[in-house]
Amino acid sequence: MTRTLRGLIGLAGFLLAWEVFSRSGIVPQQYLPPPSTVLTRFVELLGDRAFLLDLIASVLAWAIALGIAIAIAVPAGLLLGSVPWIRSGTRAIIEFLRPIPSVALIPLAIVLVGAGPETKITLAVYAAVWPILFNTIYALDEIDPVMVDTARSFGFGRGRVMCTVALPSAAPFVLTGIRMSAAVALILVVSTEFLAGGGSGLGSFVLDASTGAGRMDLVLAGTLVAGIVGYLSNEALELVHKRAFRWSAVDREAG
């Protein structure tokens, strides 16, 4: 309760400062509407069917992208982390691809997969793979060699050692990577919708609100919804982490 109360006090202080600043006239309210106006628009949007469809489109694309990223990154991380020669052989290409901004690949993605939902899903997968992949690889590096040697001394093969020793030890790190990738995937989905346009989703809603009537209150309300989705997903994954891995300190290391 203390942590929650402090968070609420900090949020209330931020909103109060924003309200005072917006109504002071330093910046015209049409460019920076006060939070009271934004929150009113936020409540109205929750009853708007068209906006709810945009929200569902973004959340669905985010969930699909995150699921695909997990399905790709976890097995790839286990392979790279357990087979040194494959890891060293792919290091150069991985380190080359990892820093490339996903939004810079929007034109290429549109050409390759089209301008539909596939574009934002593909780019979100590309961005979300890396945190999970590297967390899985580094998790295998942190496994106690004594545990592996003990399992092998009992006649366990590589596959059984992977299932009974490596995976349980790596799981907290993998879930931490998933938490980071969840935020990254949401950012990429909304950003792609905003930059590519022409579809449905929160990003498209924000684009229409900003370029059409210039409704910054709607822009900020839509942004607030995206932030709440990201916050709730992170809290849910953190709760799973704490409940499933009470014995692990990875959640504390992740902040």
Automatic annotation (TrEMBL):
<dbReference type="InterPro" id="IPR035906">
    <property type="entry name" value="MetI-like_sf"/>
</dbReference>
<feature type="transmembrane region" description="Helical">
    <location>
        <begin position="121"/>
        <end position="140"/>
    </location>
</feature>
<dbReference type="Pfam" id="PF00528">
    <property type="entry name" value="BPD_transp_1"/>
</dbReference>
<feature type="transmembrane region" description="Helical">
    <location>
        <begin position="92"/>
        <end position="115"/>
    </location>
</feature>
<dbReference type="GO" id="GO:0055085">
    <property type="term" value="P:transmembrane transport"/>
</dbReference>
<feature type="domain" description="ABC transmembrane type-1">
    <location>
        <begin position="55"/>
        <end position="237"/>
    </location>
</feature>
<feature type="transmembrane region" description="Helical">
    <location>
        <begin position="218"/>
        <end position="237"/>
    </location>
</feature>
<feature type="transmembrane region" description="Helical">
    <location>
        <begin position="55"/>
        <end position="80"/>
    </location>
</feature>
<feature type="transmembrane region" description="Helical">
    <location>
        <begin position="184"/>
        <end position="206"/>
    </location>
</feature>
<keyword id="KW-1003">Cell membrane</keyword>
<dbReference type="GO" id="GO:0005886">
    <property type="term" value="C:plasma membrane"/>
</dbReference>
<comment type="similarity">
    <text>Belongs to the binding-protein-dependent transport system permease family.</text>
</comment>
<keyword id="KW-0472">Membrane</keyword>
<keyword id="KW-1133">Transmembrane helix</keyword>
<keyword id="KW-0813">Transport</keyword>
<keyword id="KW-0812">Transmembrane</keyword>
<protein>
    <submittedName>
        <fullName>NitT/TauT family transport system permease protein</fullName>
    </submittedName>
</protein>
<dbReference type="InterPro" id="IPR000515">
    <property type="entry name" value="MetI-like"/>
</dbReference>
